[in-house]
Design a protein that fits this description.
Blueprint: E1 13-15, E2 21-23, E3 32-37, H1 44-55, H2 57-60, E4 65-71, H3 75-85, E5 91-93, H4 100-104, E6 108-109, E7 114-115, E8 117-122, E9 128-134, H5 142-150
Parallel strand pairs: 3-4, 4-5
Antiparallel strand pairs: 1-2, 3-8, 6-7, 8-9
């Protein structure tokens, strides 16, 4: 079960596709975060969803908002995926311990070993302000993220 809106977002420390450490706590007091869990790099729905985020990046990521993608793929896979798809936002590797961050957010599919399609909008104070969780085959609508961010 995904964490609830109004709760404090679990902190994490993960490597991005460039080997840089990213901590949720680093954005506290500075930026809202759109945290987007996706099952696997290089798969059809995931590629489509992250491509849609990239196309809307000017409206989603700015001085006030940071987009972070998270999957259980390795940082090396994340790098090739980001380069191939032209993704200009951090892709974080929830690789080891496998799925620990997805589990903390309640979106790890334990049977398949990958996150469900969970998105969490986290405000500057670290509180979850909005979330949506879709099953593996069901893409999310990035336009919803824009509406939520406009209301923060």
């Amino acid at each position: 079960m995904a964490i609830e809106v109004g709760t404090q977002a679990p902190d994490f420390e993960l490597s991005d596709q460039h080997g840089q450490t990213v901590r949720l706590a680093d954005f506290r007091g500075a930026k809202h975060v759109v945290l987007v869990f996706y099952p696997f790099a290089f798969t059809g729905v995931c590629t489509g969803e992250l491509g849609a985020l990239q196309r809307e990046l000017d409206g989603l990521q700015n001085d006030d908002v940071q987009v972070l993608g998270v999957s259980c793929d390795s940082p090396f896979s994340q790098r090739v995926f980001a380069d191939r798809e032209g993704l200009d936002f951090p892709l974080l590797a929830d690789f080891w311990p496998h799925g620990a961050t997805a589990r903390a957010y309640g979106v790890l599919d334990e049977e398949r070993g990958c996150p469900l399609r969970g998105t969490f909008v986290i405000d500057r104070a670290g509180t979850v302000r909005w979330s949506v969780v879709n099953g593996l085959p069901d893409a999310r609508d990035e336009q919803e993220y824009l509406k939520v961010l406009a209301g923060l």
